[in-house]
């Protein structure tokens, strides 16, 4: 069903670790001291195609989400003896066929944040696969949920083998262990890259534009770290909650200059004081080398307050139109209509710190939301835009110069599993 080049891109995204060789390099036979890569082209093709078709199904009018991990019973037994990567697998008394129908029916009973169906080929022909168990692992925390471990034992990690996770209809995450290899969406596989907020990628533009509006951004490295985590969390919450949307960051002092290019609909006199909460949190952390009371409890308290306010902010995108915020997370307006003249310059895929910045980003086929954002940023160069698509990608946009704009096609590939 899928073009072979897509399957090959997924295969190429797997970088063999120490003592590991690829199937192609050794015809499936491990070298001395090594082991074969845990998947083959046939494995990838079957799992990805089955997962894609199952992700399009609905049960009780809800999209089907699930995770598949490729692991035979012998490999699972060997992994169980590894003290550095413990695994908890519950074995079905009777294995289930890995088909679209059987997968979609049982998927609703398991949350892919914590569990994955363990699958393996039934025979060497690799034309039929079975679900022989369910693996439990601890969810990967984000910055606001991360709590330092205070007890040993009962910590289960994602296995270092091929994993496919359905997140939205037609959108799949390809991963190994805690590392995301890439994302399949809109018929394409996009390989994972460093975070778009890396300083040599979008992060540099973000810093230079926001520091004019936010003195803490320029003066305090700890503040910058929490700010980036907050923006990352805001975008992920919007992606989870909405059917698509747009967020614009505009420096406060540029609002009047840009006012002719947007129509505000809803606004407030007051704000959520997110900036103040970040500064207070950083101040507490920096004072006397740490928090003034129990550091774990203090951090949890600040993170909970901050995450709740970011969740409130994210919900505003549910209203039709863009959300405009300042460089300090102040709400400028929401339900906003953008109306800038058409951008006539070029749009390139943004650099990721290693390469990029030279490939044309074909935006003409995208919808009104994307193109109106591109037009606005082209006319208002100090603004920063994010477009959250219903099919999964989060695209980041900045203007480089009079003739060039950068677009990071899918910030989600780097942001989170």
Secondary-structure topology with pairs:
Blueprint: H1 4-13, E1 20-21, H2 23-26, E2 35-36, H3 41-55, E3 58-59, E4 62-63, E5 66-70, H4 73-80, E6 88-97, H5 100-107, E7 115-121, E8 129-136, E9 162-168, E10 171-176, E11 179-185, E12 188-191, H6 202-210, H7 215-219, H8 221-241, E13 245-249, H9 255-258, E14 262-263, H10 274-286, H11 295-315, E15 322-325, E16 331-338, E17 346-349, H12 368-379, E18 384-388, E19 394-399, E20 404-408, H13 412-415
Parallel strand pairs: 1-2, 5-7, 13-15, 17-20
Antiparallel strand pairs: 3-4, 5-9, 6-8, 7-8, 9-10, 10-11, 11-12, 13-18, 14-16, 15-16, 18-19, 19-20
Helix pairs in contact: 3-5, 8-10, 8-11, 10-11
Describe what this molecule looks like in 3D:
- With 417 residues, the protein is an alpha+beta fold.
- The protein has two domains: 4-191, no CATH class; 202-415, YojJ-like (1 (3-Layer(aba) Sandwich), CATH 3.40.1700.
- 32% of the residues lie in helices and 24% in strands.
- The protein is built from 13 helices and 20 strands.
- The chain has helices at 4-13, 23-26, 41-55, 73-80, 100-107, 202-210, 215-219, 221-241, 255-258, 274-286, 295-315, 368-379, 412-415; strands spanning 20-21, 35-36, 58-59, 62-63, 66-70, 88-97, 115-121, 129-136, 162-168, 171-176, 179-185, 188-191, 245-249, 262-263, 322-325, 331-338, 346-349, 384-388, 394-399, 404-408.
- The strands form four sheets. An eight-stranded mixed beta sheet has the order 6-8-7-5-9-10-11-12, sandwiched between helices. Strands 14-16-15-13-18-19-20-17 form an eight-stranded mixed beta sheet. Strands 1-2 form a two-stranded parallel ribbon.
- The chain is globular, with a radius of gyration of 23 Å.
- Mean pLDDT is 82; it is low at 21-36.
